[in-house]
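Lecture notes, structural biology module. Today: joint structure prediction for complexes of two components.
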Amino acid sequence: MVPKIKLNLISGRTIQQGVSMEGGKEKPAYRNACGIIEIDPADFKKLGAWRNTNVRVTSTFGSVVVKAIEATQGPHPGLGWIPMGPWANQVINPNTYSTGMPTFKGTPVDVEAASDEEVLDSITLITRAVRGEL
Amino acid sequence: MAKLVTDVVCPFCGTLCDDLEVSVTDDGKKILDVYNACAIGAEKFLHSQASDRITRPRMQDEDGNWKDVSYDEAVEYTAKILADAKKPLMYGWSSTNCESQAVGTQIGEVTGAIMDNTATVCHGTTLIAVQDVGIPSCTLGEVVNRADRIVFWGCNPAHAHPRHMSRYSIYPRGFFTGKGQKSRKLVVIDPRCTDTSKLADYHLQIEQGRDYELFDAFRVAFKGEKLPDTVAGIPKKTIYEVAETMKSGRFGIIFFGMGVTQSLSKNHNIDAAISVTRDLNDYSKWSIMPMRGHYNVTGSGEVWGWLHGFPFALDLSRGFARYNPGDTTSNDLLRRDEVDAVFVLGSDPGAHFPFGSVKKIWGLPSVCIDPHITPTSAVCKLHVPVAFVGVETGGCAYRMDNVPIECRKVVEPPEGMLTDEEFLKKVLTRVKELKGA
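The predicted structure, tokenised, for the full assembly:
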């Protein structure tokens, strides 16, 4: 059975996210910058997967395939980081609790290796997801 | 030969750097290089020159096939969906100039729209808190010249506002801060060890989502009262030490970001942050400032503030201005199926809204006005490319400290391309005809 780990997911800006966003969200560079999850080395051990393996991240609100990389701004055991963008927004908590603000930070997620699955580019991800094809 | 355009304003983040230099060809049609900008700002200028840029409006059919249409057809479709809708949502407004925001608001008035800007997923909770408890703030110029205590709480300017630290908050030598970084103490509060926290005198690696407790703990510590052994994962000794550092400064400032506004407790976190600032003014001079994201999200709040009294979540559907976050905010409206048309300008909800909201946009009559191809343009029925504000047209924008700055036009837009303001004026004229206004 594939090991599954639980993380607290947060999302936000990275400089690579900003640069690739301005360079064109339809380009592979945007997927490479934002279709990732940064995981602490301690959590990688529990996951039992190599660095740069594709993983499936699942929450109560959705599921998405991203590439797991080692935390670039760590250590932060127990925390997962997906840069802001359509990949993170497949799984974050959309509840606003009457403030208008979705809960982009602090969503419990399960992470499991999914090396056979592909990280989609942003346009394919969104256009397939809205049609219910994912 | 190339000519150099100086004092260019960067239209990316709320820092609104105004010292860029851009070299352009003699005919003023092509950007050759960008100087002084951060990596993101430079990319924004350079990407405007991309050879694969969309230059004409286009519509997609149900199967996702695109066909080019004229600007007149785009105006007609946009005006019609807004005029026909009972409750259209007009969202975005943060990556455009104040002049366009004003014209857009007129369209909203005529069509009875809900107007919302990107603060709704950014500093909307800050705006709620400011209305609750007020805000003691200052300009970034005062920070440069006076601040000797800098707190970054739940923000990472090294990545999100790359030149903020060099222009305003850490490195510059000001009138009373002649030693630059050496005259300042930096406190960073973040659940991750970020590239900003690596520069800090104190990094408090808080447990994610426990900001409210730590703000309150500081208020206790300022008064020298008792604390539990740890609060939000931070030992009480550290909290007392940092509290004393904050009290001992001559001028301090708290910059805060999405770590505080988007985590649970939301506006209450900001209430507490502002209360911390108020308490600190018993000992020294302190201010607090949100790290605004889009370069003119502050401006859209200002424009709506002076036109209708509310900075976001502005509901004009009843013929007068209403404001009720949680009710008149974009994501709540979309999730509850309460809008029947979507108009997006100067933002990308397709990438930055929770997916459930994006799916709702896809199911509605919708238009996206954006120079780029984005996930929003991919799910909208009509995509209207426009000139880049701050690159191909000028206009007013507001910096994160509410200082208005006039952006500069650097190059000509592609031939025949409209600006946001020109397109909106055409839509306004047509909407008035359709509504008989």
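Point to remember: The longest helix of chain A spans residues 15-23.
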